[in-house]
């Protein structure tokens, strides 16, 4: 069994906030839902998956802040398709009402 040690000398409130936010994004973000399903299919635990998703969001937010950009889900999905991401197989196809 592999043991993972988390940093104890960090802002636990902020870390937990990101994890809780990541959980909410599963309901509202197509790629976040696909990422969650991918990790679940790989056998990862629920909390580990949320922490991993939170880390992905932190990287996205930092890039947006650093480059003074606004996050656009559609643009992120285009980039996933351009890079032939493994998440594509977990993305549900767009519905006719959302394609218009």
Distance between the termini: 49 Å
**Unreliable stretches:** none
Biggest β-sheet description: none
The gross shape turns out to be globular
What is the averaged pLDDT score? Answer: 88
Helix content: 55-70%
Beta-strand residue fraction: under 5%
User: How many DSSP E strands?
Assistant: 0
Order of helices and strands: HHHHH
Number of helices: 5
By secondary-structure content and strand pairing, the structural class works out as mainly alpha
- Mind telling me the C-alpha Rg? 15 Å
Number of domains: 1
Describe it for me?
This protein has 100 residues and is an all-alpha fold. It has one domain (17-90). Helix content is 64%, strand content 0%. It is built from five helices and no strands. The chain has helices spanning 12-28, 30-41, 46-66, 73-82, 96-99. Helix 1 (12-28) packs across helix 2 (30-41), helix 1 (12-28) crosses helix 3 and helix 2 packs antiparallel against helix 3. The relative contact order is 0.13. This is Transposase.
